[in-house]
Amino acid sequence: MLKENLANVEKNIEQACKNAGRSRDEVTLIAVSKTKPVEMLQEIYDENIRDFGENKVQELCSKMEQLPSDIRWHMIGHLQRNKVKYIVGKVELIHSVDTYRLAEEINIQAKKQNVIVPILVEVNIAHEESKFGISAEDAILLVEEISKLENIRIKGLMTIAPYVENPEDNRLYFRKIKQLSVDITNKNIDNVFMEILSMGMTGDYMVAIEEGATMVRVGTGIFGERNYKQE
Ligand SMILES: *Cc1c(COP(=O)(O)O)cnc(C)c1O
């Protein structure tokens, strides 16, 4: 069943790339595996998926220990400063940096381990109260500040669009964040490379790809509904 889900998602990604005149290899599919058992991750791994997204540090570290070492782990959830030390040097990319204080802590831990940590700045594009992320208005300033931290590389932006019934309702938000990344590129800030746009989830990844996403984070579409009560 997971195999069919994945094939379906893959077909949609290809279609969205085609719609936008983009090449399939411009888009990375991140399988968002939070709350799901390692057996299910292994099943998807066996279908050649190597990028997995988790939103809790403890769960991510535990799964990392149990699964093959060539998996690229993506931290996509809100990150507390006291947990940073557990993932620095281990994950492929931290998608959810939205304050200077958090970036500072990542930089401290990165220095200790003598590594450069790639991150995305999370933008709350729709100004939703319930969500983390910096406002689009403040994003450029934050990028400028973080760019001065020696052991961090800003690779792009991430956003979680509002939950909507009709994915078309998010098109403007995706377009806005793409524009923001272009604006930041045009500022030519040292150490800042807007290569990655992490946007689009199960409900709206096709629209996100049409608007320029380079990473889509798909959970339910691959693994099925999450049951938080069983945790
Ligand atoms: C859970 C989660 C996703 C995946 O959501 P689905 O709707 O299940 O595809 C993507 N991004 C983030 C940040 C998440 O927390």
Low-confidence stretches: none
User: If you consult CATH, what is the topology?
Assistant: TIM Barrel
Total individual domains: 1
* Separate helix tally: 9
Pfam families: Ala_racemase_N
Cofactor: pyridoxal 5'-phosphate
InterPro entries: Ala_racemase_N, PLP-binding_barrel, PyrdxlP_homeostasis
Keywords: Pyridoxal phosphate
Summarize the structure in short:
Pyridoxal 5'-phosphate (PLP)-binding protein, which is involved in PLP homeostasis. The protein has helices at 2-19, 38-45, 57-66, 84-87, 100-113, 136-146, 171-186, 205-210, 220-223, and strands spanning 28-32, 51-54, 72-75, 93-97, 117-123, 152-159, 192-198, 215-218.
Task: Give a written overview of the molecule.
This protein is an alpha/beta fold. The chain has a single domain, classed as TIM Barrel, CATH 3.20.20.10. Helix content is 39%, strand content 19%. The chain contains nine helices and eight strands. Strands 7-6-5-4-3-2-1-8 form an eight-stranded parallel sheet. Strand 1, helix 2 and strand 2 form a beta-alpha-beta unit. The radius of gyration is 17 Å and the shape is globular. The two termini are 22 Å apart. The mean pLDDT is 96. The structure holds pyridoxal-5'-phosphate. The site of pyridoxal-5'-phosphate has 14 residues, from strand 8 and helix 9. The site of pyridoxal-5'-phosphate (PLP) has 14 residues, from strand 8 and helix 9. It comes from Roseburia intestinalis L1-82. Belongs to the pyridoxal phosphate-binding protein YggS/PROSC family. This is Pyridoxal phosphate homeostasis protein.
